[in-house]
Design brief:
Elements: H1 9-33, H2 35-40, H3 42-54, H4 58-68, H5 78-105, H6 115-142, H7 153-161, H8 173-199, H9 205-235, H10 245-255, H11 260-263, H12 267-292
Helix pairs in contact: 1-5, 1-12, 3-4, 3-12, 5-6, 6-8, 8-9, 9-12
């Protein structure tokens, strides 16, 4: 791998740009290939969103979607498909780039084991800056209350454009940044150690990567789930009074009757989604990296 002591400096300088580009390419490819499961499980994701927004049990959320009909079932599917591809490209590519910079130019004593997590934290911040507008559009489209006022993607884009960034495209930017930065840091900090432990049980590298991605993403999703609920509630409405993060959190906590169980409503479906998407993404990415290494 580039940056290891086994490589000469000149050879490293020649190969670095190629290897860095491969990380972006492999991240985008793995996420693109996992877009099909994302499309298949989108009704599950939309069910979770309705639970997050309206604090309803799963059967009520499913009944809402059934009543709206199959034509509206996939309303809002385009942004998450784009986000999956961009997410993988940015997340894996930027993390690898930042990790390389930390490895070769760090002037401060830092444990090697902490570097992947720190690089992931930085990648998550950039990811939030790029993807927050897409998540905002996605949440507006998925809210059935907006169907009549904002019936098309174009109408949503125009409405958000007419508002200032903090209330329009970048609504809930701070909790998204916190969620993505912490999530990415945990993912890259835990992924390889968990994979090593799983591989030690005699499983193949592909299966080990899949299980590692699944277990890691499950833990992250459940830990940061309250932030996702907060983001969904902040972004679903358009034109409402722009309350701050703390005020929105207080309203959300009160609406959930100050109950952690109600706040985590829909969390079990997040596990299913994470198992399918991040497990596949991690396995494909690790395989591509190994084959090109």
């Amino acid at each position: 791998m580039v940056g290891s002591p086994d490589h000469k400096l000149d050879d490293e300088g020649l190969r670095d740009p190629v290897v860095r580009f491969q990380s972006y390419l492999h991240g985008g490819t793995s996420s693109l290939l996992s877009a099909l499961p994302t499309f298949i499980v989108f009704p599950v994701y939309k069910t979770v969103f309705r639970q997050q927004l309206h604090n309803t049990p799963v059967h009520t959320a499913v009944a809402q979607l059934y009543k709206e009909g199959p034509l509206k079932l996939y309303r809002g599917v385009v942004p998450p498909l784009l986000m999956r591809t961009l997410n993988g490209t940015l997340l894996f590519g930027l993390q690898d780039t930042l990790l390389h910079q930390l490895t070769v130019s760090s002037h401060y004593p830092m444990p090697t084991s902490a570097m992947p997590a720190l690089a992931g934290f930085g990648a998550g911040i950039v990811e939030a800056m790029v993807l927050t507008p897409l998540e905002r559009v996605q949440n507006v489209l998925q809210n059935g209350q907006n169907d009549h006022r904002l019936p098309t993607l174009k109408s949503v884009l125009m409405r958000l454009k007419s508002q200032r960034l903090a209330l329009g495209y970048y609504r809930a930017f701070l909790p998204i940044t916190a969620r993505n930065a912490l999530g990415s840091s945990l993912y890259f900090g835990l992924k390889d150690p968990v994979c090593t432990v799983v591989a030690g049980q005699g499983l193949s590298p592909m299966i080990s990567s899949f299980i590692s991605g699944t277990l890691t993403s499950m833990a992250i999703s459940l830990t940061l789930y309250p932030l996702s609920v907060l983001v969904a509630n902040m972004q679903a409405q358009v034109g409402a009074e722009g309350k701050g993060v703390i005020a929105c959190w207080r309203m959300l906590w009160t609406s959930r009757q100050r109950s952690v169980a109600l706040l985590y409503r829909g969390g079990s479906l997040v596990i299913l989604r994470s198992c399918i998407t991040w497990g596949i993404t991690t396995a494909i990415y690790d395989r591509q990296q190994k084959n090109s290494g």
